[in-house]
Design brief:
By secondary structure, the protein is of the alpha/beta class. It is built from six helices and 13 strands. The protein has a single domain, classed as Rossmann fold (3-Layer(aba) Sandwich). Keywords: Hydrolase.
């Protein structure tokens, strides 16, 4: 590929500009290797054209037009006043899992009932580790530029969850560009939040039927989407790698879920958990499955932010302490430490 004009200038500058505290020519092989492999998360703001570590050029995903993967140096520490607080977003624009309970009214932190099992669990579990939780199904509450939330958690969202439904209620209004209606403002907000170093957590249906037609979101979830699943059944989970979100898990453990199949297969991510397909009694009738490697949790850096996702969490009992649900304690550990890592309170996707 031949670069010309401004692109050539930017590439040449990036190739010769040192990171803070070192010279490009004087970098040790270990330092050069770390930079090429993705480096470490920066701790202060840097101009994004003249100080791009050279390795980042290799991590640009041209399909989603973002730097993504195991590239800590691509993280953007642009917001210095983030709080130990997360936003839990559970809006559904299609199928709704039983563990979400009835749809919530507009606003922040509306009243929860016992039926809101996932919401109550996340509030309780994160409170146990000192993290405040706000919750909403109000699309206008999506954090954006400068948000002080350390992470936004999508819990079993569905379909076009970020679209402001009902704004254009008359057929003529749908094509009236003078109304000022910004029906997809939440998409813009989420993208700007991530680009400023926000953390994203996607749980269960958040990567299984959410924002099908927005490529940026597909990339955020690992370049993949849910295709189908087999029966709700027991299986053996394999812990694939050492990570903050797998540190307390055994090498193999039993759990019960729907075991989502993916299409396309996730790429450029660090795989955390997989299910051993040989332990499943039945599989989906259409998708052929993934054979010997069927991932169900993974993480990546994405467009300046952090993304941690898991397909687990279908059954309400998995969200209920003391339920006796198979593998419940390990599931809870995985969720809590995954959120903490996306927040930056534990090492992320190392």
């Amino acid at each position: 590929m031949v670069l010309r004009g401004a692109a050539a200038t930017a590439a040449a500058t990036a190739a010769t500009t040192a990171l803070p505290g070192q010279t490009a020519a004087g970098a040790t092989p270990d330092e050069a290797g770390a930079r090429h492999a993705g480096g470490a998360e920066p701790t202060v703001k840097q101009p994004i054209t003249t100080t791009v570590p050279r390795g980042q050029w290799d991590y640009l995903d041209p399909y989603y037009n973002v730097v993504r993967g195991q590239v800590p140096a691509s993280y953007h520490p642009w917001v210095s006043n983030r709080q130990d607080r997360i936003l839990l977003y559970t809006r559904t624009a299609g199928p709704r899992h039983a563990h979400l309970g009835p749809a919530l009214p507009a606003g922040l932190n509306p009243a929860l009932t016992d039926a809101h099992v996932l919401q109550n669990a996340v509030v309780k579990w994160m409170g146990e580790v000192g993290v405040q939780v706000d919750w909403t199904e109000d699309v206008t509450r999506m954090p954006g530029i400068g948000s002080t939330y350390k992470a936004v958690v999508f819990g079993s969202t569905s379909r076009d969850t970020l679209w402001k439904h009902g704004t254009a209620v008359q057929p003529a209004a749908a094509v009236d560009t003078t109304t000022g209606a910004h029906l997809d403002a939440a998409r813009t907000a989420l993208r700007q939040y991530l680009r400023a170093g926000g953390g994203f957590v996607g749980i269960h249906n958040a990567i299984g039927g959410t924002e099908y037609n927005w490529p940026y979101y597909e990339g955020l979830c690992g370049g993949t989407q849910y295709y189908d699943h087999g029966a709700h059944q027991n299986g053996i989970i394999v812990t694939l790698t050492r990570d903050s979100s797998t540190a307390g898990l055994p090498a193999r453990w039993e759990f019960k879920d729907e075991w989502y199949n993916w299409m396309p297969f996730p790429t450029r991510v660090k795989f955390l958990l997989a299910v051993d397909e040989s332990t499943l009694a039945t599989r989906a009738g259409t998708h052929p499955g993934h054979g010997r490697f069927h991932p169900i949790s993974w993480c990546q850096y994405y467009d300046g932010g952090r993304s941690w996702v898991t397909a687990l969490g279908h059954d309400s009992a998995a969200w209920t302490d003391g339920s006796g649900y198979v593998g419940q304690a390990f599931f809870k550990e995985h969720i809590v430490t995954g959120i903490l890592s996306a927040m930056g309170k534990l090492p992320f996707c190392g």
